[in-house]
Amino acid sequence: MCRLKQTDIHVINWVSVKKDNFVANATHNIGNLSQILSVKSVKMTFAYVYGAVKTKKCSEKCTSEGMKIMKNEEIYRELFIENTLRLVAEGGFEKATTRAIAGECREVGDVKVNEAHIYRIYGKKDNLFADVFSILDCELLAAVKEGLQEFDKESDKRKQWELLFTRLWNFLLTDEGKCRYYVRYYYSAYLKGESLRAHQAKFRDFICDMMPYFTENADVCSILQHVVTVMLSFAICVYNGTLLNDDNNVPHVFNVIYSSVHPYLR
What is the CATH number of the domain that holds 183? Predict the structure, then answer.
């Protein structure tokens, strides 16, 4: 391998990294280059700089295309989540086929969305279902934590739980589609494995925060799970039209919840 001389290095540093400028400068000064470098060294200098310019342009192009792909995939993801939530809420998981999910999407840029994009982003449909549930899980947890912040403002146990109940109840009755999706997924065979572990991990800190309010032998996790499932059932009854969300029924729902919790409170 031919090693570049010190004079070669100085010339490489002198030459513009832009291809057009390099060619112009090198052509104008070819006589000077020939006096400084051997023919072989000149060829190596051209190859070195041209390669650097080409690599830089390729890198910039790849970076630009990569960012565009990432942006499009984020748009795809939002569309898939929106359509999956609606389809499952309206007709269950059997209605949420990949064709139906993709078919509801609009074109992104000049690309027509199809089923292949779902598999490219999620690998399989189950992961898409889990992603939607995870988002709703985070929203539910945020509502519960907001209620917990108000928990200590009251010294009366019943009022404490009434504050927490009200926060969660209002959240469940804010969006029918989200509530129905959450219930369908919560009671489905899809909530298993990694999806179940992620769900349990999200609420682990909340359960720990609630332990001081319960007796030492109380199974806090099971009690809180019971509270959530009962409230979900009542919320669906409201959406199905079998229960009115009024001043008569809401206190009744709370009494059902509180009566199951009270025996285990400190």
Answer: 1.10.357.10
